[in-house]
Write a structure and sequence with these properties.
This protein is mainly beta. It is 8% helix and 41% strand. The chain contains 5 helices and 32 strands. The strands form 6 sheets. A 7-stranded mixed β-sheet has the order 13-12-11-15-20-17-18, with no helix packed on it. A 6-stranded mixed β-sheet has the order 1-14-22-21-16-19. It has a 6-stranded mixed β-sheet with strand order 24-23-25-30-27-28, with no helix packed on it.
Length: 473
């Protein structure tokens, strides 16, 4: 649950990036609810992509990156950059132990590099910012799926282009399942619903207006590619996979009646145990899976998903749930979800300080901006490391989200204290506001080569807040 102190911190963080002048009190949110526009569009669910070929050991896909028309607002056409003409891209459903091969064909007029965010993959398939697919070209990515079930996502990562490419639509969902998750009595099938959340600025003709610095003007919030949808739900439990696919937007969600829900997973999959809460923060690239129980509501009840950190003057309402009748519900949330082993004792310590040089519009890690010809760190396979990541306070300090490729990590400490329960599982993206420090346990396995770590506020990474590591045996 977001404490009042954490909500104020989140509001201040959003203000520091131009997202929000101050945290919005709940009374303010409620006041806006009455004056909101109608929810007129049913929630679309991104289609699950069918493999072009299934072999005895692999699922093989072919996707085309191309321009397409989307309907973000009712009756308005918006040109987007897409995977297979879908906005957001189609969902790939994968299985642990069964590798996936994806051939990406680039029919756009811009280079791209496709990254499976949260994926444990060989270097050649990681989507390194310099491993570009040029217009008219193609690249084949191999995903071993040798990791636990988790909600992952894929997106463009071409250096200095990723921010605009993702803003214009290049992202999609990748759901990885396994036997352990199958055995849990969590909501499944049609009751397991992805919610991909992001924002944008739309011009008068419906076009996406992009400016890397114009964050506060992105006042249209989308769920699964449309603004202000509604979802008809039965009076039973649902599992929602929340994915923040926005470039820079910080969200803080709650249900309009203040009722509680249960978080069951974060970036790297299931938490050790469920966490009851009545609000949840979600920073760029973070994922959180929650279970909402609608069984106590009368048919006809309407619940709104609200954002407690809206832009100034922005409607706080995101989407609406319309509750129908009761249906059989064999699902439940068990007291234990997935046990995680204790992290090994670190033998290597590293520090990463994330700062902003406003005078020169540069975003730095340890005083340096990204250089593809420089290797910043050289971790070794199988070695336990502790990474201390900080954002110092100061006049030009901004919040950041630290993300590393290849490995999921554990949060050991936040500001010298044990992590909150919702940060107790595997993570790959961790938020920090000015003055905060987190200590992470990182251990690389299996794959060697050059990978990157960076701020996942994409405007920041595109302006240099990225480092390169060489993993060695």
């Amino acid at each position: 649950m977001l404490s009042r102190r954490r909500l104020l911190t989140l509001g201040a963080a959003a203000g520091a990036t131009g997202l929000l002048a101050a945290a919005v009190p709940q009374s303010s949110v409620a006041a806006r609810s009455g004056a909101s526009a109608a929810f007129t569009v049913p929630l679309p669910v991104p289609p699950v992509l069918e493999p072009a070929l299934r072999t005895a050991t692999h699922d093989i896909y072919r996707m085309t990156l191309k321009e397409a028309d989307a309907r973000i607002l009712p009756g308005v056409t918006t040109r987007v950059r897409s995977f297979d003409g879908q906005f957001p891209g189609p969902t790939i459903r994968a299985r642990r132990g069964r590798p996936v091969v994806v051939q990406q064909v680039n029919e756009l007029g811009t280079p791209v590099a496709v990254h499976l965010h949260g994926g444990h993959v060989p270097q050649a398939s990681d989507g390194h910012p310099m491993d570009l697919i040029k217009p008219g070209g193609s690249r084949t990515y191999h995903y071993p799926n040798d990791q636990s079930a988790a909600t992952l996502w894929y997106h463009d990562h071409a250096h200095m282009l990723e921010s605009e490419n993702v803003y214009r639509g290049l992202s999609g969902l990748y759901v990885l399942t396994d036997e352990l998750e199958d055995l849990l009595p969590l909501p499944k099938g049609r009751y397991d619903v992805p919610l991909l959340l992001r924002d944008a600025k739309l011009a008068g003709d419906g076009a996406l207006a992009y400016d890397v610095h114009d964050i506060a003007a992105r006042g249209t919030t989308m769920v699964n590619g449309v603004s202000r949808p509604y979802l008809n739900v039965a009076a039973r439990k649902y599992r929602f996979r929340l994915v923040n696919v926005s470039n820079d937007r910080v969200f803080a969600f709650r249900l309009s009646d203040g009722s509680r829900f249960t978080q069951i997973a974060s970036d790297g999959g299931l938490l050790p145990a469920p966490v009851p809460m009545d609000s949840i923060g979600l920073w760029p690239a973070e994922r959180a899976e929650i279970v909402v129980d609608f069984s106590s509501y009368a048919p006809g009840t309407q619940l709104v998903l609200e954002n407690l950190a809206p832009y100034p003057g922005e409607d706080a309402q995101i989407m609406r749930f319309d509750v129908g009748g009761k249906v059989p519900d064999p699902s439940r949330v068990p007291e234990q979800l997935r046990p995680l082993p204790q992290p090994g004792k670190p033998t290597v310590e590293r520090t990463f300080e994330m700062t902003t040089d406003m005078a020169h519009d540069r975003y730095l890690i340890n005083g340096k901006e990204f250089d593809m010809d420089r290797v910043d760190i050289r971790p070794r396979l199988g070695v336990d490391e502790a990474w201390t990541v900080s954002v110092p306070a100061g006049n030009y300090a901004m919040p950041h989200t630290f993300h590393t490729h290849l490995a999921q990590f554990r949060v050991l400490e936040r500001n010298g204290k044990p992590p909150a329960p919702e940060e107790s599982g595997l993570k790959d993206t961790v938020p920090l506001v000015p003055g905060e420090t987190v200590r992470l346990h990182v251990r690389f396995t299996t794959y060697t080569g050059r990978y990157i770590y960076h701020c996942h506020m994409m405007g920041h990474s595109a302006l240099g807040m990225m480092g390169q590591m060489e993993i060695t045996a």
